[in-house]
Amino acid sequence: MDTETWFTFFALLAVAAQLGTLALVALAASGRTSASGAATWQRVRESLGESGLAIAAIVATTAMLGSLYLSEGADLVPCKLCWYQRIAMYSVAILLVVAAVRRDWSIRPYAVTLCGIGAVVATYHYLLERFPEWESSATCEVFNPCNQTLVWRFHYVSIPMMALSGFVLAAAVLVCSAPPEASERSRRRDHGRAIPAEEAT
Predict the structure, then answer these.
(1) pLDDT in the model for residue 46
(2) 99/95 Cα distance (integer angstroms)
(3) 166: which of 85, 86, 137, 173 lies 20 to 30 Å off by Cα?
(4) Would you say residue 106 lies in a domain?
């Protein structure tokens, strides 16, 4: 595929990530409004508890590989804000891949924090693209400004929007997941069984 086709493909992935995030938000909202919605939401959370780390790792790794293609394959030079987003995304990808292999949910607060930082930077970068006059010399380099839009698809998807979509979806999957041990405790409470002190710690 040529670079323009790859750009469209990455934009489609960003849209898919946005739809996935909206679906999780809708399911969470329905879980608070009806008994059937609550049951469905619990099943979704338990399912994510089994595969959430892997899903989030795939999202972050895909975003990482996409950014590498943009710079190494399409020869787009990353600006300063792009590098900040890369630092966050690459760190999240590595952490989540290791955590997924080890099934280690203790990584969740750290990964969500990095996703949040990356999302803030990506949002600011996107706003600079939309409002170029906001950029100052202290924000980015004169010869590689952060307010230029190198990729633009579907009238709203640019590179920082792609990054933002990845950060938000990865964080949403991690936050919405119910790890297996948490799901087991929840089922025991529902059946009126007390949780031994050693299991609750």
Answers:
(1) 95
(2) 6
(3) 137
(4) yes
Dihedral sign for Cα 27, 30, 32, 37, please. negative
- Per-residue confidence (pLDDT) for residue 137, from 0 to 100: 61
Give phi and psi for 125, each to the nearest 5.
-60, -40
CATH number of the domain residue 112 falls in: 1.20.1550
Cβ atoms 201, 69 nearer than 8 A: no
Distance CA 155, CA 31 (A): 33
Tokens of 11: 């934009």
Q: Helices (DSSP H) in the chain: which residue ranges?
A: 3-30, 35-68, 80-102, 108-130, 159-176, 180-190, 197-200
What lies within 8 Å, CB to CB, of 28 at 6+ separation is 41, 176
Here the tokens at position 158 are: 């640019």
Q: Burial level of 34, CB count in 10 A (0-12/13-18/19+)?
A: exposed
Domain assignment present for 76: yes
Show the domain range for 98. 51-180
Q: Quick one: which of 2, 168, 19 has its CA closest to 89? A: 168
pLDDT along the chain (201 residues), means of 10: 95 98 96 92 94 97 98 95 97 98 96 98 96 76 87 97 98 95 54 48 43
